Amino acid sequence: MSDFVFPFADIGELVKIAVRAGQIVMQHYQSSTLGIFKKSDHSPVTDADREAHRFIHTSLLQLTPHTPVLSEEGEHIPYEARKAWETFWLVDPLDGTQEFIGRTGHFAVCIGLIHQNYPVAGAVYLPAIQELFFADGKQSFKMLLNGTTVRLQLPHQPLQTPWRAVCSKGKMPEQDRAFLWQNWGINRATPMGSALKYCALAEGKADIFYRTRGNSEWDSAAGQAVLEQAGGHILAMNGERFSYNKPSLVNPPFVCLGFSDKQAVMPALQAAGAQ
Description:
7-stranded mixed β-sheet, alpha+beta, 2 domains, D-Maltodextrin-Binding Protein, domain 2, Fructose-1,6-Bisphosphatase, Chain A, domain 1, 14 strands, 8 helices
């Protein structure tokens, strides 16, 4: 990435877009009606998803007119049309729509910048708790309520045993639970909705997140930028860095680490890949 030239001059402009989109989401969240609809795949979408998408899409095209935008709530763009994209925005305007509908507060605005199939910058805003995480291409930060920023820097290895795991809300698949227990002696995981899991890892509040299904590229891109630039990793099950702009936008299984020593998980990943 050393020769990559960012298509925008100031990470603060991306931060402003994410925060304003979060404010739009909260206006709907605080309303008595959420405007809930069904998409073609029968998953829910709300007026908040759609309005946040329109704002983010318009704002990113103003910020970087020559950089394509791929959003969960945007038009379907076939792989043949996007496979040659070198740099593009990957957006989930409201990550955690089910949590939004359930009014749990576990939802986020996620905006990632992808270059040559990997995240190079991103912003994750958690509007219900007003927490902002962003990656500027070199480092990751958390912005506090008073506007000051704190750099996120993860340790080389987990600081406690067993490792602290996080998982998605709902019942964890039994094979996921067994994988964590058999390889690392992890017998419990803290459930979190949407991109809160990546933020918890980047902030050093969790050590591992293992995901096998129910996740798409726009769900993880911004979180990966924040986690990696804090010193952590998202790895495919072959141990390689997790990549984007694949023919299918549905993510394959992956593991996220809130520490820098990825060799700590390689034996388990290599064994899983050999099966």
